[in-house]
Write a structure and sequence with these properties.
- By secondary structure, the chain is mainly alpha-helical.
- The chain has one domain: lambda repressor-like DNA-binding domains (434 Repressor (Amino-terminal Domain), Orthogonal Bundle), CATH 1.10.260.40.
- The protein contains 7 helices and no strands.
Length: about 110
């Protein structure tokens, strides 16, 4: 899972900075920066850069982003290989609906 990618995507879609995200989450801005700077290739080094379930739930509730969508955004190819194709298609469709909804809100 690549939470750096998920955090950056959500921030970009919502048009907020790392500092603003940190304020919403009630954490220091350096925490968000560390997560976004994590490198999947060095999992041992990045072990402390994986957000807690509570942080992910706070993002979900604060920004109306379904929890499963955060997981999809953080997913990498090897993470999705274990899912049946119809599940990936369903998740993708829900992502598209969310993006369309966000576009209409702008």
């Amino acid at each position: 899972m690549n939470y750096a990618k998920a955090f950056r995507t959500i921030r970009s879609a919502k048009g907020i900075t790392q500092k603003e995200l940190a304020e919403v989450l009630g954490v220091d801005a350096s925490y968000v920066s560390r997560i976004e700077a994590s490198d999947k290739k060095d999992a041992a080094k990045d072990a402390g850069r994986i957000p807690s379930t509570q942080i992910l739930e706070k993002i979900s509730s604060s920004f109306s982003v379904p929890f499963y969508l955060i997981a999809l955004l953080a997913s990498e190819e090897e993470d999705l290989k274990r899912l049946p194709v119809n599940n990936v298609d369903e998740l993708s469709l829900n992502l598209l609906k969310l993006l369309e909804s966000a576009k209409n809100d702008l």
